[in-house]
Automatic annotation (TrEMBL):
Quaternary data: Monomer.
Required cofactor names: cob(II)alamin; [4Fe-4S] cluster
Organism name: Pontibacter actiniarum
Stated name of the protein: Epoxyqueuosine reductase
Gene field: queG
Function: Catalyzes the conversion of epoxyqueuosine (oQ) to queuosine (Q), which is a hypermodified base found in the wobble positions of tRNA(Asp), tRNA(Asn), tRNA(His) and tRNA(Tyr).
Phylogenetic classification of the source organism: Bacteria, Pseudomonadati, Bacteroidota, Cytophagia, Cytophagales
Secretion signal span: none
This protein's pathway: tRNA modification; tRNA-queuosine biosynthesis
InterPro entries on file: 4Fe4S_Fe-S-bd, 4Fe4S_Fe_S_CS, QueG, QueG_DUF1730
Catalytic reactions on record: epoxyqueuosine(34) in tRNA + AH2 = queuosine(34) in tRNA + A + H2O
Length: 313
């Protein structure tokens, strides 16, 4: 079989597994990203996410992660919820849409393992690894290289006719495939994401100071929330979707068809008072398999109190 045929088989199987898009790029050193990453780290835009400092070389070269790597297969999985599945109460506390259902790491990892097994069955013995946002892989850079979208001013990957509400994952394999090319940037003169960010985390177009992002504060930061952020979180207690919600490209977002991403029925109807009285037991029940577990019960309670104190003033 030719590499064109291999590529076709992989993309067809990816579609069958529910991935929205699949693109392929050559496994090589990310020359453009190296100075950007170095500058971002030097300016301490990763805050307490010290793991971002680790494996600098591996982040930029997939051949250091997989021996003999030839191709990076990038995949997108939609998580945009149907309107009926979105949190209904306007004045209630908010959880980022990506965390409504089962933790995406588990869902995607299973799909990737199935895809890798299929490659080995149909094509022959292929060495490779699956990656879902848990290893030093610059997923947006690879998705961009493989033509799945452009990295917008909010630093989210944006895809024409789709938007940006999706997860990005990779297979890095030692198989030569037919490579896709990047597409044009269609942000134009739009600055909606910069204008809407309440904490000024998007410091300039295409640059996000991670240490100022609501998602960072509510998920990654383990210390007390800084007083200078009082009044800036709105109702967000886990993650934040503001820059995506205001992006004009997300008017094209369509509901996902992944049953595992359906929210717990009670999540949609939780009122502010329910959040404020949240017990460890209810937390465990509501977020049993959710990404919200990352911040833990104490972290979520801290976030709720921080936002609550703002609204009480």
């Amino acid at each position: 079989m030719s590499k064109e045929k291999y590529t076709y088989l992989i993309k067809q199987k990816a579609k069958e597994l529910g991935f929205m898009y699949c693109g392929v790029s050559k496994a090589e050193f990310l020359e453009e990203e190296a100075p950007r990453l170095e500058r971002w780290l030097n300016q301490n835009m990763h805050g307490q996410m010290r793991y971002m400092e680790n494996h600098f070389d591996k982040r930029l070269d997939p051949r250091l992660l997989v021996d003999g790597a030839k191709s990076v297969v990038s995949l997108l999985l939609n998580y945009y919820p149907a309107k009926d599945d979105q949190q209904q109460e306007e004045d209630t506390y908010k959880v980022s849409k990506y965390a409504y259902g089962t933790d995406y790491h588990f869902v995607i990892k299973d799909k990737l393992k199935t895809l890798l097994s299929y490659i080995n069955e149909e094509i022959g013995e292929v060495g490779g690894r699956c990656f879902v946002d848990s290893a030093p892989v610059m997923d947006k850079a690879w998705a961009k290289k493989s033509g799945l979208g452009w990295v917008g001013k909010s630093s989210n990957l944006i895809t024409p006719q789709v938007g940006s509400f999706y997860f990005i994952a990779e297979l890095i394999i030692d198989l030569d495939l037919e490579y896709d090319g990047p597409i044009k940037d269609y942000c134009g003169s739009c600055t909606r994401c910069l204008d809407a960010c309440p904490t000024g985390a998007i410091t300039e177009p295409y640059v996000v100071d991670g240490s100022k992002c609501i998602s960072y504060f509510t998920i990654e930061l383990k210390d007390q929330l800084p007083s200078e952020m009082n009044g800036k979180f709105g109702n967000w207690v886990f993650g934040c979707d503001i820059c995506q919600d205001v992006c004009p490209w997300n008017r094209f977002s369509k509901p996902h068809s992944e049953p595992a991403f359906a929210p717990h029925p009670e999540l949609k109807t939780l009122k502010t008072s329910d959040w404020q009285e949240l017990t460890h037991e209810v937390f465990s029940q509501l977020f049993k398999k959710s990404a919200v577990k990352r911040t833990g019960y104490n972290g979520l309670v801290r976030n709720i109190r921080f936002v609550q104190e703002d609204s009480d003033k």
